[in-house]
Design brief:
The complex is a heterodimer.
Chain A lengths: L1 H4 L2 E16 L4 E17 L3 E5 L6 H8 L7 E6 L2 E2 L5 H10 E4 L13 H11 L6 H14 L16 H14 L4 E5 L7 H17 L4 E6 L2 H7 L2 E6 L2 E7 H6 L4 H9 L5 H6 L40 E4 L2 E3 L5
Parallel strand pairs in A: 3-8, 3-9, 6-7, 7-8
Antiparallel strand pairs in A: 1-2, 1-4, 4-5, 9-10, 10-12, 11-12
Helix pairs in contact in A: 4-5, 4-6, 5-6, 6-7
Chain B lengths: L2 E14 L2 E14 L3 E5 L6 H8 L7 E10 L2 E2 L8 H6 L4 E4 L3 H4 L6 H13 L3 H14 L5 H4 L9 H13 L5 E5 L7 H17 L3 E6 L2 H7 L2 E6 L2 E7 H6 L4 H9 L39 H5 L6 E4 L2 E3 L9 H5 L1
Parallel strand pairs in B: 3-8, 3-9, 6-7, 7-8
Antiparallel strand pairs in B: 1-2, 1-4, 4-5, 9-10, 10-12, 11-12
Helix pairs in contact in B: 4-5, 5-7, 7-8
The chains are: A alpha/beta, B alpha/beta.
Amino acid sequence: MSSQLNETILDVRDLKMYFPVTRGLLRRKVADVKAVDGVTFKLKKGETLGLVGESGCGKTTVGRCIIRLYQPTDGQILFEGEDITNLPEEKIRNIRRKVALIFQDPYSSLDPRQSAGNIVGEPLKIHSLVKSPSEYREKVEELFRKVGLDPSMKDRFPHEFSGGQRQRIGVARALASEPSLIICDEPISALDVSIQAQIINLLEELQEGFKGLSYLFIAHDLSVVRHISNRVAVMYLGRIVEITDSNILYSNPLHPYTKALLSAVPIADPFVEEKRERIILRGEVPSPLNPPPGCSFHPRCFKAIPECSQVIPPLKEVNTGHEVACINL
Amino acid sequence: MSTLLEVKNLATQFHTEGGIVKAVDGISFHIDEQEIVGLVGESGCGKSVSQLSVMQLIASPGKIVGGEVIFEGQNLLQYEPNGPEMRSIRGAKIAMIFQEPMTSLNPVLTIGRQLTETLELHLKMDKESARKRAIELLGMVGIPDAENRIDDYPHQFSGGMRQRVMIAMGISCNPKILIADEPTTALDVTTQAQLLELMKDMVERFHASLIIVTHNLGVVARYAKRIYIMYAGRIVESGSTKDIFANPRHPYTVGLLKCIPRLDEEKGRKLVPIEGLPPNLINMRPTCAFYPRCAEGSERCSKEPWPPLTHIGNQHYVGCFLNDKEKKSELST
């Protein structure tokens, strides 16, 4: 098992996703939005990698490129050793069986006209994973139980469920095709605090149950990401600025942006808060349409030196397994 | 510090086709001069409605059905919602910052017009000095190049900048109380931190008091001196922030604290979710609404009316039968 767990399931190399900005009658391309601009990371079997960053940093785009909802502009995506970057449409289906997606908004991501059972069972039909109607029924019921829903509710429609239950349906649908990787795109941010814990626990239990299930957990809530992830990658304007083991990231953040991001999150403990140092960043995240030259964080950085506006710092290993993109290190 | 605003037994109901929704069901709270108070609860618990009721901004089918809102010796609820008395208080002495800066700014008016409107109305400024003051205010809340940006429309501002404009509008008439209703929920983490810091600085500078309405326990832990915890239209626990975090006494408060992951703890702790769902507020029974989800509930909770808030220590109040004298021993274990 341990050798299997060290296997790399996903290998993303220098991924770029540029969205063209067109103008005029002829839709001439006038610029690119560099949503993802050279992202490299690996994900091991059974591991959870957290991908954090503020809105517009490209974290969702990374997830969508991996499942090929977007055709990346450049770079490579290797899934279970196979290059899937340019796989033709008909072969992509096979990949989508093994890579599932859980969406952010449990209200808009479920078809309101299909029953919960149909929603959960659809992947089984599409990928021909069941042979008979009775097997289908059993499978759907099993999936319902797995995510903590009563199978008798399978004939109900999405509007009859609460937000937390809907997200459970989303999780069940993702599990239906027995994927080895689930991309969770902000799976809990639309839910109430007391319900969030239910979904986090469910995701953790599922990973314990299916050995080797990996998560790419995309979120902006750093407390949640720390809780669930083995490793965390911090993104800023289309690039990863720091990636390391989650405990190290939180105890010893090295990139100034990571430091600021961590200090911006208030901890629910007034005694801790009293003593915490706060780094308040100036300004806002610049537009990816027109990113600052050099390190895109330098206009807001409290450690910036003149060179920062000239060189794009590469991600380099500072300590074992701890990579940071900052020329000051 | 003397009490600035005192709300007693406030009740607001919505009459819907399905029945009566008791969105706010008899809550009492107060805020002292220059104090920062947090009002915490999940969506639908009535925290926003309670603040809108203070401002008398409840639209039909909603109705304030009881209680008092005492501000500067007067009960604000005796005034007509659109009467001159209320209008002279709203925005001038008690100002509000709303959650969604996109929808709470008027898209067809320039930022400047929206700011000067308040100044001209409440402070009787002439056009020129109102504009000067508006530029000053925009600069104060950190909008660069305010002289030029004052003529921009809301859509030309980013979300964080819009919320800065809202803060500028909020403080423009030197209010005594600023009510911030989920002021940073729709914003990014680093912007959130900037704006909360800004709000804190502004109320300090203007010697105002701040009510932060939020679902984020971290935000209140960082900024509030006292907090009120709401559930299903009622306040279930209140006290100094430190007391509540160190010694939470209502099972709901305890549950909330256990179910959130903390930034400063290592991976591995199992979160303890609060089972079940927040109740549907239509035609609620008069018993404790948290009872169906409560791990500590007893038969008494299902029979007797909702337990009143009892004083259990310095400024610390809790509404739960577990804190009755005869049960005290049980709790300490």
